[in-house]
Amino acid sequence: MGPRRHATLGPRAPKSAHSKTLLTEAEYLERERQAEYKSEYSQGEMFAMSGASEMHNLLATNLAATLHAQLPRRPCRVYGSEILSPSTEAYDRGRKAEHYRQIEPLAEYLLVAQDRMHVDLYTRRPDGTWSLKEASRPEETLELRSIECVIPLADLYEKAGF
Known about the structure:
With 162 residues, this protein is of the alpha+beta class. The chain has 4 helices and 9 strands, in the order E-E-H-E-E-H-H-E-E-E-E-E-H. It has helices spanning 25-34, 54-69, 89-101, 153-156; strands spanning 5-9, 22-23, 39-42, 45-48, 108-112, 119-124, 130-135, 141-144, 149-152. Strands 2-1-4-3 form a 4-stranded mixed β-sheet. Strands 5-6-7 form a 3-stranded antiparallel β-sheet, with helices on one face. The protein is globular and about 50 Å long. The two termini are 24 Å apart.
């Protein structure tokens, strides 16, 4: 399905042949509460989110289980949802990632492919720039230094059939 542009959020602007329908935050939230499907918005644009595939759910569960097992009695919480969909991958790697990297306290950003064994780990350097480490073999691991966890790709992609 992929992200579909529905509307723009922000100050109301005059309508023209080239302008979009604009929503306030309150209008977006009202629509979202009544919607049958989840959506997301970024910089005023509202996007429909595609449903999660079986592979997406498997990888999200494997990732959450791997992290949860390494975080006992620590104040961290695990919420697994950063699995790429082939239909939204360009957006997730592009504008969405760009916005995430602007979140000042964000130290690491993990992108997990579901159509192949491949993970990208972006890590913020002290000077504010980002480094990238890629992994795509079962014997490789990625270290999330911000939470002192290690993700073995063999565990992440267990039962994925790659």
